[in-house]
């Protein structure tokens, strides 16, 4: 299929491994023309929510992916009405640009998928789940073996020690996880920042900053090298 005739799509981008690998999967299959990213940020500190990733790193990812991003700025806390309103405006912008599909990196949580589908209903954009229901025990190894490199930026301390913060997402990390932790962190046990992989034209050089503790969650501030 020629690229010009492929449906245009964007990736729902969190900066982490699952959305990055979903992008890689779609590009490998060659059925969609991925034209950009869409991501939500905290408007008070210019960081991606939950992952705690700086906007500078998001911009570096965009350059390495050669994809622009629609950035949805949200207050914190953000109620559902404001969220739907601002995301809805972005969806309409994408629709006007000819985008037909939104790619999500979700793996197996039915309620999350249903929420995505409800969000997209009537928008003119269809949700796509290229990693859906793939075994996460194998999927995590496939990610690492593909050359994907990521850093653990956030952990839920109720299930995972803050000692895992800043660790590379590699085979050693996976081997050390207890059996009750999903190896892809699909239940929110941890979040990651992708710094290299087959979806990038070049790696992103980063360094670790301070650790931040907020209630049940712990974060590490990942910075561009030189900051």
Describe the structure.
It is globular, with a radius of gyration of 17 Å. The chain has a single domain (about 5-225), classed as 3-Layer(aba) Sandwich (Rossmann fold). It has helices spanning about 15-30, 55-65, 80-95, 110-120, 135-145, 170-175, and strands at about 10, 35-40, 45-50, 55, 70-75, 100-105, 125-130, 150-155, 190-195, 205-215, 215-225. The relative contact order is 0.18. About 30% of the residues lie in helices and about 30% in strands. The chain is built from 6 helices and 11 strands.
Q: Kindly provide the name of the CATH class.
A: Alpha Beta
What does the main sheet amount to? Answer: 7 strands, mixed
- Rounded to the nearest angstrom, the distance between the terminal CA atoms is 44 Å
Structural class: alpha/beta
What is the residue-mean pLDDT, rounded to a whole number?
Answer: 91
Shape: globular
CATH architectural arrangement: 3-Layer(aba) Sandwich
**Number of folding domains?**
1
Low-confidence stretches: none
Q: Care to count the β-strands?
A: 11
Q: Give the helix tally.
A: 6
What is the fourth-level CATH superfamily? HUPs
Q: Kindly state the percentage of residues in helix.
A: 25-40%
Q: Beta fraction of the residues? A: 25-35%
- Give Rg in angstroms: 17 Å
State the order of secondary-structure elements, H for helix, E for strand.
EHEEEHEHEHEHEHEEE
């Amino acid at each position: 299929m020629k690229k010009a005739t492929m449906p245009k799509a964007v990736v729902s981008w969190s900066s982490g491994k699952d959305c990055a690998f979903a992008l890689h999967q779609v590009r490998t299959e060659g059925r969609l023309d991925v034209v950009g990213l869409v991501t939500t940020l905290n408007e008070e500190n210019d960081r991606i929510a939950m992952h705690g990733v700086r906007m500078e790193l998001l911009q570096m990812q965009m350059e390495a992916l050669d994809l622009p991003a629609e950035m949805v700025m949200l207050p914190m806390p953000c109620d559902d009405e404001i969220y739907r309103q601002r995301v809805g405006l972005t969806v309409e912008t994408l629709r006007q640009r000819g985008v037909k599909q939104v790619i999500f990196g979700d793996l197996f949580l039915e309620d999350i998928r249903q929420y995505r589908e409800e969000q997209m209903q009537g928008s003119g954009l269809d949700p796509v789940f290229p990693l859906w229901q793939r075994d996460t025990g194998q999927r995590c190894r496939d990610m690492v073996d593909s050359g994907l490199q990521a850093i653990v930026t956030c952990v839920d301390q109720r299930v995972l020690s803050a000692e895992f913060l800043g660790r590379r997402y590699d085979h050693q990390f996976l081997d050390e996880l207890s059996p009750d932790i999903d190896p892809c962190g699909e239940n929110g046990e941890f979040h990651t920042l992708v710094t290299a992989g087959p979806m990038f034209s070049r790696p992103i050089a980063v360094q670790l900053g301070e650790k931040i503790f907020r209630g049940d969650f712990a974060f590490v501030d990942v910075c561009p090298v030189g900051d």
